[in-house]
Amino acid sequence: MYDAGLVNRIIPFSCVDGPGNRSAVFFQGCDFHCSYCHNPETQNLCNGCGACVKVCPKGALSMKEGKTLWDPSLCCGCDACLMACPFNSSPKVRWMTVEEILHELKVALPFITGITISGGECSRYDRFAAKLFEQFHRLGKTAFCDTNGQRPFRELTELTNAMDMAMLDVKAWDDELHRRLTGSSNEVVLDNLDYLASIGKLYEVRTVIVPGLLENEETVIEVSRKLARFPKVRYKLIKYRPWGVRPPLEVLPPADGYMEELQSLAYENGAGAVVIT
Known about the structure:
Layout: E1 5-14, E2 22-27, H1 51-55, E3 61-64, E4 67-70, H2 80-84, E5 94-96, H3 98-104, E6 114-118, H4 126-138, E7 142-147, H5 157-162, E8 165-169, H6 175-182, H7 187-198, E9 202-209, H8 216-227, E10 234-239, H9 256-268, E11 273-276
Parallel strand pairs: 2-6, 6-7, 7-8, 8-9, 9-10, 10-11
Antiparallel strand pairs: 1-2, 1-5, 3-4
């Protein structure tokens, strides 16, 4: 379906989803299943099991013909349904058109510099996203993709041409580690790193630092060596935090000193701008 995208949620104002004050649209569905996923409810499509209906305190959820229905007017936003879901999904998703997204953001539009699409994985809706971006460009706004790189941007020509920039997750340099973390290879991810940087459409690379689980130093070294040729591309090192992770990892967030060591390592290997969050 190219006329609509399956939206998990919309954040009208965000200062962490790209440069400036932006609106962020999170799409539903992802082929990666990261052990540390902070919004696991975006991974899968609802299978109508009904577990969420039983725990909704406001009666905002119901079942009809094997499908879970959500009434936003009754929802109190407690997210009990998300915690009850055994399938890393959400009943609170909507197929939305470009016009419906613009309508929902009508109050925010005068105050934002652009839109960022995320997920889940936003590139699953590449042709719809291209249409959305074209409309935002007509309004004088920028358009960014926050992507885990699971689909090849070389082949997503409509989306690649329509977007201003991408923010790409590189979770692990070693393919076997990446498979253990996400369930998938990182071959396409690393090709996207090369391709998007080479065409000037890579704003930022992001790596979540997870002590004891990943070879953090290897990833930082290899990514920063790549970025040495593209000094305008930021490298963001993100502290692992347990917020939203289900089930919780038996891992503590990295210490500030360790993050600073990795930042220094990235600079030593030629990265132009390295930030810690």
